[in-house]
Amino acid sequence: MLKEWIAEEKPQAKELKERLDAAHEKLAVLQMKIKEHKLPVVVLIEGWGAAGKGSAIGSIIRSIDPRFFKVASMAEKAEEEQRRPFLYRYFAQIPEAGKFVFLDNGWADEICELKAQGELSREEYHSRIDSIKRFERQLTDNGYLVLKFFFQISRKEQKKRLGELEEKKDTAWRVSDRDRWQNKHYDKYLEVFDRYLRDTNVAGAPWYIVDAEEKKWAQLQVLETLCSGIDIALQNESLAVPLLQNVFPLVKMPRLDEVSLDKKIGEDTYKEELKQLQSKLSALHYRLYRKKIPVIIVYEGWDAAGKGGNIKRIAEALDPRGYEVHPIASPEPHEKARHYLWRFWTRLPKTGHIAIFDRSWYGRVMVERLEGFCSTNDWQRAYNEINEFEKELSQWGAVIIKFWVQIDKDTQLERFTDRQNTPEKQWKITEEDWRNREKWDDYEVAVNEMLQKTSTTYAPWHILESVDKRYARIEALKIVIRALEEALD
User: Fold this and answer.
1) What is the phi/psi pair of residue 238, to 5°?
2) 44 bridge partner residues
């Protein structure tokens, strides 16, 4: 792709200036339309060292209200980010609806550098490419405009610019050993860049190669393409997205009405097993930390099913420095204005740590589906998006344990009534709980579909029979211990 690229003819100086002025004016108008239509825009600026990426971004943002954009330099990876999944730091940067983010280098630069340095095997490279294509497609499917620019300069021009920077004390620091190495091995990098652009040039997020031999000409190419992309995105904002076929291996799950709820455990047996299992889990937690294995535990279930008590018995066994419980409620305005998975990507644990989610991303296919908080196309796409999300976590090395805490309708009514009639428990019951109960049958249909479509071999669901809360707690501990032992072995 890069090798066959033919640069567009550069306009004369007068035309160049006129077109630049017009493009800046148009972008200033379009930014208000972006805000009005709540269109989030991700602009990825990639390319050769010293190709003028930073100056191009500086020129573009002059036309935009500074309250509505962010510029992030992604060249260096912090130690904290190295302990998170590959896509973590990029997902964390996505903008709110109606705003821009400009990334000075990003996922393309990271992959190409590792590939050029021989630090990625063929299998690892292709795995990262799949992750990137899924990431970009999820963004565009959920209404983001993703524009990717590659700044192309010749080996001679790059060498000249690096020399000019090194000659001045105030700019010499901008030239890194990597830049010098890249210029010395230009042909090798050209092969890597060309292959990467081919592998990730997709309809929803195509690459635009920018002739960056002259800086103002490069800025004009980006500005005009950016304005054109925004125009098209605003015209197509109401289009539905085709549903993808599931390609992930699934574990067959029973329907909820097929689950026996008569399992019980005596109080003495419960106390004895609880002590033993918590002791075992505590020891495993230290081994997890030493081996840097991340763990993600997800709890979903009926209101009053006993999720909180179940979580408490697991958390009691853990070192408080190495876990966090995330109670997930309705999204805050800044969360609602982003991709629905953003608030979960940003809550993922570091390696060696445990994250426990009291409700999770599955709200997309339950409460958001049934209460009309997203479109039908949104929740139907979400099954595949969630499987992709959990696949990323699995490939990162995370242990994923998902619980559906199951009770029957009569048990829920009994617990609701007890909460309402007991002063110290009344905070646990709300009008919303009663409203949700009226939709029990609709929720059961949604839950059954969720279990069937998202119980993968790498992140299977476990149904906890919780009419007897003690039995459910012991079962959860056994399942967690078994999963951790398998991962550590």
Assistant:
1) -100, 5
2) 103, 148
Which among 407, 410, 414, 411 has a CA at the least distance from the CA of 465? 407
Residue with tokens 């697991």: 314
Residue 4's CB: how many other CB atoms inside 10 A?
Answer: 7
Using only C-alpha atoms, what is the Rg of the chain? 26
CA distance 310 to 313: 5
* Helix boundaries (H) for 292-408: 307-315, 333-336, 342-345, 367-370, 376-396
Taking the C-alpha atoms of residue 353 and residue 396, their distance in angstroms, rounded to an integer, is 13
Strands, DSSP E only, in 27-130? 41-47, 69-73, 100-104
Rounded Cα gap, residues 366 and 33, in angstroms: 32
Cα distance between residue 378 and residue 417, in whole Å:
36
Per the CB < 8 A criterion, the answer to whether 299 and 311 are in contact is yes
The CA-based angle 134-451-375, given to 5 degrees, is: 60
Could you give the domains of the chain?
13-235 (3.40.50.300), 256-488 (3.40.50.300)
For 364, the token pair is: 């997309």
Question: The tokens 């930014």 sit on which residue?
Answer: 31
Amino acid at 114: L
* Residue-by-residue pLDDT tens, the chain, 489 positions: 898 999 999 999 999 999 999 999 999 999 999 999 999 999 999 999 999 999 999 999 999 999 999 999 998 888 889 999 999 999 999 999 999 999 999 999 999 999 999 999 999 999 999 999 999 999 999 999 999 999 999 999 999 999 999 999 899 998 999 999 999 999 999 999 999 999 999 999 999 999 999 999 999 999 999 999 999 999 987 778 899 999 999 999 999 999 999 999 999 999 999 999 999 999 999 999 999 999 999 999 999 999 999 999 999 999 999 999 999 999 999 999 999 999 999 999 999 999 999 999 999 999 999 999 999 999 999 999 999 999 999 999 999 999 999 999 999 999 999 898 888 888 888 888 898 899 999 999 999 999 999 999 999 999 999 999 999 999 999 999 999 999 998
The DSSP code for 398 is -
Residue 160 contacts residue 219 (beta carbons within 8 Å): no
